[in-house]
Structure formats: C-alpha cells, structure tokens
Amino acid sequence: MFFPSATANVRAYQAMLLEIAQANVNFAFEFAQRLATTRSPIGLPIVIAEFTSKRVAMFRKHSKELSELSTKR
C-alpha cells in the first residue's frame, strides 16, 4: 500500500526540516554571540570566515541528508 509508506516518509522529512531549522537558529545565535563578544575590529573578519565555513559545511550536510531522505522509498 502506498499511503502508509508515503506518510512515514513525509513525517521523516518534516522531522528533518525541524532539525535543520533548530540547527540554523542555534547557529545564528552562536554567530551573533561571537560577533558581539569580539573585542577588536580585526577579529571580525576572522569570526565571519570561521562561521562562513561552518555554514557552508552545514548546508552541504543538510542538503545531503534531505536528498537521501527524499530519494528513500
């Protein structure tokens, strides 16, 4: 039967989206905190570069997870 498996996949996809949203919120707060506590203007580009790298890695990870989940049958 198609519907039970489709429902399970939709629930898993929704759960994954919620996890991603939570990770994004946590990331944003951590980034804002680091920017706010940076004492020197020279440190700002370092913090931005560090968090940009982290964000790109998060995006790759989440894209891969969503792709795997969406192709799962």
- Rounded mean pLDDT score: 91
Strand percentage, roughly?
A: under 5%
Kindly, what is the distance between the CA atoms of the first and last residues, rounded to a whole number of angstroms?
Answer: 12 Å
Could you give the count of β-strands? Answer: 0
Largest sheet: none
The count of helical stretches stands at: 2
Notable characteristics:
0% strand; 73 residues; 2 helices; mainly alpha
Question: What's a quick, concise take on this entry?
Answer:
The protein is 89% helix and 0% strand. With 73 residues, it is mainly α. The mean pLDDT is 91.
Your description of this structure?
There is one protein chain. The protein is mostly helical and 73 residues long. It has one domain. The protein is 89% helix and 0% strand. Helix 1 (2-37) runs antiparallel to helix 2. The chain is elongated and about 55 Å long. The mean pLDDT is 91.
What are the SSEs and their pairings?
Layout: H1 2-37, H2 43-71
